[in-house]
Protein 1
Amino acid sequence: MSKTLVIVESPAKAKSIGKYLGRNFTVKASMGHVRDLPKSQFGVDIDQEFSPKYITIRGKGDIIKELRSAVKKSDRILLASDPDREGEAIAWHLTKLLDIDEQSPCRIEFNEITKNAIQQAVKNPRPIDQDRVNAQQARRILDRLVGYNLSPLLWRKVKKGLSAGRVQSVAVRLICDREDEIQAFIPEEYWTLMGKFVKSGKSPFEAKLHKYKNKKIEIPNQEMMDKILGDLKGASYQVATVSKKEKQRNPAAPFTTSSLQQEASRKLNFTSRKTMVVAQQLYEGLDLGKEGPAGLVTYIRTDSTRVSETASEEAKKFILDRFGPAYVPKQPRQTVAKGKVQDAHEAIRPTSIERDPENIKQYLTNDQYKLYKLIWSRFLASQMASAVMDTTSLDIAAGDYVFRATGSVIKFPGFMQVYIEGNDDGSKEEERLLPELSEGDKVEAKNLTPKQHFTQPPPRYTDATLVKILEEKGIGRPSTYAPIVDTIQKRGYVVRENKQFYPTELGIVVIDLLKNYFPDIINIEFTAEMEEKLDKVAEGDERWVGILKDFYQPFQETLENADEKIGKVQVADEVTDEKCELCGRNMVIKLGRYGKFLACPGFPDCRNTKPLLEPTGVGCPKCSGEMVLRRSKKGRKFYGCSRYPECDFVTWDVPTQEKCPQCGGMMVEKNSRGKEKRTECINEKCPGKEYKASEQTKKEAGAVSGKTAAKAGKKTPQRNRKKANPSG
C-alpha cells in the first residue's frame, strides 16, 4: 500500500485533518513559511528581472531535515497549506526545498477542515498555481523595494531605526489626515427642542421640533430658541398626521475577514490582530473531548459573503427545528458581491451549525468561545427570515410649528431572535412605543426642553473603522488588514488610546516628508491600483515583472531626487526651562516610542531623562499644586499633581477650569464613546454628581479634542482613581 505525506502549516491543523485520513497517511507541519528574502541583505537582483534571492528562514533547518526524511519514505506528497496566495507560496517554496515537481498533482486545498472537505481535496490534487505564487512574490518584492530603499533615507534625514512600508504608510496617512480634520474643526452651535406631550388617558410621549412653515427647522443660537419658546407660550397642540407602516429588516450577510474584524472590535473589544489569532485557532481545529480535534469555522481570509448550498440547507433545517417554519425565509438568502471581490472562498461560517456554542463552551477558552459564538450567530441569523417592524410617526402641530415623534416596535423578530449587528458609535437600538392617537386629537405639552449642542469633529479611527476604510479604499487584502494595523503601532507612528488611533509626532513628520517627496507611495488611489494589478497577476492576466519595472524606475528617480533635496528633519527637540539636576543643562523635549519625554542634551556624557509634565492651568483639588499632563512609561495619559510624590492625586479625565456649583470641586471632562463630551464633578460624594457644562466649556470641547500631538496608550484607563503609579 502506497504511503502519502501531507504537509500543512501548523501542528494544530495537522492534528485536525489527521483524523480524517487513513493509516497510510502521515501529516507533518512546516510551521509556516520556510523560505523568505534575507533580512540582512536586499535580496533582489534588479538587473536580472527582479530575481529574488530566497534563503531558508533561520530556525527552520531541523524542520526541513525532518520533512526531507519523511518525503523519502513516502510515495506521494500533498501540500495542504492555506487556500490563498500565501499558502500557495508556502507550497511552492516547499517544492523547491524538498525537490518536488511543482507541475505534478502535489497541491490540495480546502475551505474548511471537515471530513468531506479533506477527503474531496485528497481526491482532487492539482499542480502549483504559479500565477498565485507570482502575485505573492510581486507583493513581497514591492515591499522590499520600498522598505530597503526608503528606510535608510528616513534614518539619515529623520531618525535612526525608522522604517517605511508601502501599504502601512497609506494607513498612517489616513490617520494623520483625520487628525488634521479634527484639529481644523471649528464647533458650531445648534439647539434642539424636545416636548413631552400627553393625551388624557394615554401614556406620555416625547416629540422633537421638526418643522416651521413646512420647512425643516434649524436653530443656530439661543436667541432664536428664545423666540420659538415665546411663540409657543400658551399654544395649543393637536395631532396633524399619523403615519403607520410595516417595514422589513434584513439580516447582515455572514462575515468576511474585514467585517469579522470590525464586529469583533465593536462587540468584543478585540484588536484586529487578536481577532485573527483566535480565528486561526478556530479554523485549524480544537480538541472537543470525545469528538477529538475539529475545525470549527471555514477559512478566515476571505472577501466573499457567498455560502455553499450544503451549508445553507443545513442552516435551514436547524432553523426549522429550533425556531419553526416562520423563521425560515421563503427564498434562500443570496448575497451580492460588492466592489472588487475575489470570491475565491466562502464567507466565514461555522463548519457545522449543529455545534451550538453553548454545547462546546467547556472546550474553548473565553476568547475562542466569544469569537465562535459571534461567527455562529451571525451566520445563523444571515440564513433566517427578515424581522418585521411596525413603525409609527406622529406630527404634532402648534400653529406654524410641527413636532415629530417616531416609534418602532418589533412585530416579528425573525433573525433578531439570534443576532443584531453592532454600530460604530456604540449605540443600542431600543423599541419605542407611541400611544394610539388619531388625527385631530388634542394633546397637552407638559414641558418643552431646549438643549444646546455643538457639532462634533469626525471621529478618530478605531480598529473597526480603520479596517473598514482600508477595505472601502481598496488598500490591502483580507490577509493584510490585521498586519497593517499591528505594524503601524509597532513602528511608533500611531498609538491606540481608548480604542482610537492617534498619530505620534514622529508619524506626522514622516507622513509630511512622504507627501512632499514620495506622493505615489502614500497616494491612496495609486496603492489601490497596485492591489488591482496584483489581483490580475494572480488571475494570470498580467506579468509580475512588468509591474515591478513600471514601479521601480520612477521610484528610483524620486528617491535620488529626494536624497539631494531633503535636509535633516528635527523632531520635537524643544529646549525647556527645566534644569538637569545632574549637570545643570536645560533639558530638551524628545520624542520616544510612547510620546514626549525630557532628556539632557549632554548625552552621552549625561543620560538623565524624566517624564514631561505638561501644565493644564488647573489647580490640584487636594493641595496647592497644579494639575499636569503626565505619561506613564508605556505612554498612557493621565493627570496628576505637579507636587508628586508629596501629593498623590491622580485622574484619567481631563481637568477643567470650571468649578462644581454644588460643592465647589474640580470639574473634569469625560468623553463617552459615541456621545458628546460632558463635564462631571470629580467629587464622588457631590450631591449633584453630573452637571451641565457651561457654554464656554462646550465651545472649547472641539479645541480640546484637537490637541493630540503625541498621545499614547494601550488600555482603556479606569476613571478617577485616587491613587496611581505615575512611573507606569
Protein 2
Amino acid sequence: MAVLIDSSFIMKKLYFLFLIALLCTNAFAQRKGYWDQKVDYTMVIDIKEKSYQYDGKMKLLYTNNSGQELKKVYFHLYFNAFQPGSMMDYRLANIADPDPRMTSNIGTKEKPVYQSRIATLKPDQIGYQKIKSLTQDGAGTTYKVDGTILEVTLAKAIQPNSSTTFDMIWEAQVPEQIRRSGRNSKEGVELSMTQWYPKMAQFDEFGWHLDEYVAREFIAPFGNFDVTINIDKDYVIGGSGALQNPDQVKGYVKNAKVQSTKGKASWRFKAENIHDFAWAADKQFLVNHARSKGGVDVYLVYKPGAKTTESWTRAMEYTTAFFDFCGSKFGAYPWSTYTVVQGGDGGMEYGTTTLVTGERSLESLVGVIYHEAAHSWYQHLFGINETVDEWFDEGFTSYIEELAFQHLFKKNQSYA
C-alpha cells in the first residue's frame, strides 16, 4: 500500500529501521519449530459481464502443518463488507477521520457529517459471496456466515501434519469500486478483482486470524494458485502469476488466435508460493512486456490515453531496472513474473502483482510502482502480518522505495 514520505527527513530513520528489520528477520529465521499452513487453490470462474456477477468453483488442498487437531476452519468473504450495515459501513460512519475515497460529507465543511458510500449501495451494486455448497473429502460440512467470516465445522477433524481437500461452489457479485476491489473505477477500469474469492484464513501459533474486513490489511497462508477465468473474449486481463495460454487470448501475443466458446475466452494463470491472487480486466487494456537483466518478466497493463500512454511506456525501463537493483541489494526476486495493472483506487500489493491508479506523471507512477513492488520482499516474501506489524512492512518497503527511486530515477549515486 502506498504511503507518502518526506525523504529528506526520514531517510536516516528508515535506514535504522532497516537494520532493526534485518535483525528481527534473522531472529525469526533461526527460531526452532516454526511451521506454517499451506494452501493449494484450483479455481474456475465464469464472469457474467452485464450483471457484474460470477460463478465460482474451487478445489482447495489444505495442509495442516501445526501440531494441533483442527475441527473447524475459516474463510474470509471480503466482498460481503460492501453492503449497507456491514462493519466497514458502520466504521466509516463513526470514526473521526474516514477515508475520503469511501465517504461523502453530507454535512458542512465546518461541521462534517460523513456517510459511507457503502450505505447508499443498491442491491445490484453491493458486493457479496454466497456459498452454494462446501464439502470436505467428499463429505458434507456445516457452515455459517458472520459478516465477512465463513465458519466451517468439518466433517472430520484435520490431524496434525495431514491434508484435506475442500470443494466449494459459490456465486458472487462485484461491488461498485469503493476501496481496492470493485467495478468501474474512477479511471474507467471495468474489473479490479482483489479479495475476490473465499480465502482461507491464517492459522498460526497465535490461533486463527479472523479480523472482520474494514478496508485494512491482510494475512494469509502461502500456497499455489491455478486459476481459470472465463470472460468475454474482448477483455484483456493482467494479474498474479504466469499466464499459461498467451497465444489463445487477447493482448499478449501479436496476431494471437483468440480461442473462445460461446463468445468467452478462458484465461489460465498459475502462481507458486504466494498468499494472495489478484487481477483486473478491461476491454481497452494494453500490455507492455520486457525482461529484466536478472530474468524477471515484467508486464505493464493499462488503458492507453492522453493521461497514461507516455508515462506507462517510459515506466517500463525503470521497472525492470528496479528488480535488478533490488536483487543485488536485498536478495533475488524469487518469482518469474511481476505485473503492474491499472486498477483500484491507489496502490496495493498482491502476490506477484500490484494494482495502481494509472493517470499519473512518470515520477508519480514510478514512485508508486517502486513502493508496491518493494512489498514483494516485505510483505510477500516473508508473509509479515500487516494487521499487527504494519510498521515493519511499510518501514522496510519505504526504505527500498526511496533508495531505488533516488538511485534509478533521480540518478543520485550516493544512494547506490
Protein 3
Amino acid sequence: MAEKEVYLSRDGLKKLEQELEYLKTVRRREIAERIRQAREYGDIAENSEYEDAKNEQAFIEGRILQLEKTLRNARILTENGSPSGRVGLGSRVRIRNLDLGEEEEYLIVGTLEANPAENRISDESPVGRAIMGQKVGAIVEVDAPAGAMRVQILEIH
C-alpha cells in the first residue's frame, strides 16, 4: 500500500529533521545511560527505574520511526499557493464569514503544521476542505463543528 504524502513548509521540514537528529544523537544516548545505570541496581524484574527507562526508550524509538516515515513522504509547500488562481496548499487566503461579517486570513498547510492560533489551517479542516480549489469571489458553505456558515473568498496569495 502506498504511503500518504505529507505536505510541509521548508521550516516545518527543518524542524522535523532537527527533532529526528536530536532524538537519534542525544536522547538515544541519554536513555542508554539511564538503562545502564538502572541495571546496576540489581534485579531488573522489580526495578522501576529500569522499567521507566525501557518505556521511554520504546517511546523515543517509536517517535523516530514516525519521523522517518513522515520525512520519507514529505512534499515541500511553497507559500505562493496554486498558480491556477485557485486555493491550494500553501495559499494565503482572505475570507469573509458572510453570517458574521468578519474577515480572516489563513495559510493553507498540511495537517502536521496546522495551528489555528497562528491562522495556519489544514487542507483537511472544515474551512480548508470547503475552500480548496475555489477562486476569488466564490461563496462556499462550511460545515464546521460550531455549525454551518457561509464564507466568501476575497483574496488568494
Protein 4
Amino acid sequence: MAKHWLILLLACSFSSVFAQQQEPYMLVADSLWGKEIFRFPLPFAPKLADNGFEDARFPKNWSNQTSPHYWSYVFAWYLTLNEEPSEKMLELYIKRYFDGLMNAVNKDKELTLTETTVLFIKQSGDSPEYVGKIKVYNAFHTKMMMTLNVLAELHYCEAKNKTVLLFRFSPSNFNSEIWEDLKKIKVREDFCTF
C-alpha cells in the first residue's frame, strides 16, 4: 500500500512541477481565428516587459501573401505599468517587439536587419486611442521592408493596477474590409478580474 501512495505522490509532484499555468484569454474573437498566449518576458524581446502576457489572434490566411488577411492580426498585452502609456512608450515597445521578433525569425544570421520605425499619434478627445504606422523587415515571408497600419487602444484596471494595450495590425489601408474584422476583436469586459 505504501508503494502505491509513493507512486501517486511522485506522479502528482511531477505533474504539478511541469504543468504550465495557462493565462486566460482576454480577447473576444471569432472562433475561426487562431490564438496564442505568450508570457512575459518574451524570449525575443526581454526588455519589453518582465511581467504579464500577450493574447494574439490571427486569421487563417495570415501568412498567405495573396490573401486580404495577409499580415493582419491583433494582440493585447496585459501588463503592470508604472506610468500611463504615451506615444513614445508605445513606439518604443512596438519597436522592441518587432526588432526582437524579426531577428529571432531571421535565418540569415549574417544579415543585419533594418531597424523597425514606429509612429503613433493619439486620437483627439479623451479616449485612449492611437493610430500609427510601422515600417518593419518581414523576416517571415518577403525578406523585405513592409509598412503596417496600426490602431492601438488602452484599457486600465485601477483595482489591480493593470493595463491592457490592444493593437490591431494590417498592411491594408484603414478603409479596407479587413479592418472591419480586426475591429470586431475586443478586450473582454471582465478583464479586470484576471
